[in-house]
Every structure is written in structure tokens, then in C-alpha cells.
From TrEMBL:
Positions of the UniProt region annotated as Disordered: 212-266
Domain of life: Bacteria
Keywords: 2Fe-2S, Iron, Iron-sulfur, Metal-binding
Cofactor(s), names only, from the UniProt record: [2Fe-2S] cluster
Biased composition (Basic and acidic residues): 256-266
Pfam families xref list: 2Fe-2S_thioredx
Descriptive protein name: NADH-quinone oxidoreductase subunit E
CDD domains listed in its UniProt record: TRX_Fd_NuoE
Organism: Phytohabitans flavus
Ranges annotated as biased composition (Low complexity): 231-245
Recorded coiled-coil stretches: none
Length: 266
């Protein structure tokens, strides 16, 4: 498919966020931009990103196939992910996945016949304290069971947007991709924030109840710096040791010391 002038303008806006010699850093948000229009990253989307950044389609494809958030096949409005990793699995994650798979008639990374829901299992959703969990477009539904999971997908199929246990009201995968590309979401209910929940804080509460703390630790102690401008020494060392590679030449292309020595010997 061809991309609109509006999409090209947004792409140029994304690229302008980065220094001229670091323009390749714009690739990740550009892929989200493509996905916000297509619903996935198609070959045409890969070509568009390569054209905008002046790199090869192979370079774009290598990134697009590495990250699972970029979908290479047409995807439904709702990406339903069920955690089947160790903690959630012990708590019933596999049973939830199996029930939904049978109910929806699809397996991992497949989309329902009506095109509305894409289903997948996830290795970890980073919410072990709320397990078993599932997400819809990366928003959490905590402590689910097979019946509540089916109820959520029934609501999605009926055109509703069920409220996640935590976080913002649901948006479609295309709407979410606009946010991930770095553009503001116009819906008032799109963003949400709040304190950590009781399961997350359980370890801290137990430590407080039993008087457990790190000996001599004061969280208010400032990090000392060996530099005069106040930057932490560790940060200064990290920046010096991890200078970004220039887009002008891929990292690792410089001759190795032993190669140079051989050439000089000749």
C-alpha cells in the first residue's frame, strides 16, 4: 500500500527528533507509525521505513522481525496475550490459554475468522505478583481464570472496551501504535496512573512489619561524583564507555589491531 502525505509528514517529524548522524535511531518509532496505519508491518511498510531513513530493507527487516510488538501479518484490533510462563502457569495460565484457544478457534499468533482478535501466549508479562494475567493490547487483566478471560473476549467481540484491572481504558492496536510512535493520544481516558498495588508492595510491607532493612542504608544519601559538574561518576563512566555508533558507518567496520599490524608489516 502507498502511505499518505500525512504519514510522511509524521515520519519526518519522528526523524527530526534525532541528531542528523543518528537518524537510524528513528527506526523503532517509524515501525510503530507504519503499524498504526496498516495494522501490521508489511513489506510495503518495511520499504517505506528504508526509504525514509536511507537504509536497506534488510536492515529494517532485521529489526522488525526481532521485536514481537511488530506484527508481520494482519492483526486484529485486539491483541489478547496470555502469560504461560512459570509463575502464571503454576497458577493456571495454561488452562486459561487452552480455554481461550478452543473458544476463539485459533492458536498462537493467529487471528479469529472475523478479524477482530489476534491471540498469543506470552513468555512473561512482567506481572508475576498479579498472576495469572492476560493483557489486551498490553493493558493488564489481573488474576484471571478461564471464565473471566472468556468474558473479556466476549465484550471485545461485542464492540465494548472492558476496563483493565490497572491502567488506561483500552484502545485498538492501531491507536496504541500511534502512542508508541511518540504522538499524543487525544482521548481523555487514554492515560492513567496510580500507586503500586498491594501485591507489588507485599515484600516491602513484610520487611516493615518485621523490621528488616539494609544495614546503614539511607535512601536520601546523594550519589557522590568525582566530576565538578555534579554528574554521578558512574554515569560519566558509562557515557564514556558506551558512545553510540555513527550512522555514517556501522559499528565494527574499523580494522582490527592485528589486521592493521599485518598491513603495516607488508
Amino acid at each position: 500500500m502507498g502511505f499518505s502525505d500525512a504519514t510522511r509528514e509524521k515520519a519526518l517529524e519522528i526523524i527530526a527528533r534525532y541528531p542528523a548522524d543518528r537518524s537510524r535511531s528513528a527506526l523503532l518509532p517509524l515501525l510503530h507509525l507504519v503499524q498504526s496505519e496498516e495494522g501490521n508491518v508489511s513489506p510495503a511498510g518495511v520499504e517505506f521505513c528504508a526509504e525514509m531513513l536511507g537504509i536497506t530493507k534488510a536492515q529494517v527487516g532485521a529489526v522488525a522481525t526481532f521485536y514481537t510488538m511488530y506484527k508481520r501479518r494482519p492483526t486484529g484490533d485486539w491483541l489478547v496475550s496470555v502469560c504461560t510462563n512459570t509463575m502464571c502457569n503454576v497458577l493456571g495460565g495454561q488452562e486459561i490459554y487452552d480455554r481461550l484457544s478452543e473458544y476463539l478457534g485459533v492458536g498462537h499468533d493467529e487471528t479469529t475468522a472475523d478479524g477482530s482478535i489476534t491471540f498469543e501466549h506470552a513468555e512473561c508479562l512482567a506481572a508475576c505478583d498479579y498472576g495469572p494475567v492476560m493483557t489486551v493490547n498490553y493493558e493488564f487483566f489481573d488474576k484471571v481464570d478461564p471464565d473471566t478471560a472468556v468474558h473479556v473476549v466476549d465484550q471485545l467481540r461485542a464492540g465494548q472496551r472492558p476496563q483493565p484491572t490497572r491502567g488506561a481504558r483500552l484502545c485498538t492496536l492501531k491507536e496504541l501504535s500511534v502512542q508508541l510512535a511518540g504522538f499524543a493520544e487525544p482521548r481523555e481516558e487514554a492515560m492513567a496512573d496510580g500507586p503500586a498495588g498491594a501485591p507489588t508492595l507485599r515484600g516491602v510491607r513484610l520487611a516493615q512489619e518485621h523490621g528488616i532493612s539494609v544495614p546503614g542504608f539511607d535512601p536520601e544519601t546523594p550519589i557522590k561524583s568525582s566530576r565538578g559538574d555534579g554528574a554521578p561518576a558512574a554515569q560519566a563512566a558509562g557515557v564514556a564507555a558506551n558512545k553510540p555508533a555513527s550512522d555514517l558507518k556501522p559499528a565494527g567496520d574499523t580494522a582490527k589491531p592485528q589486521d592493521r599490524a599485518l598491513k603495516e608489516a607488508k
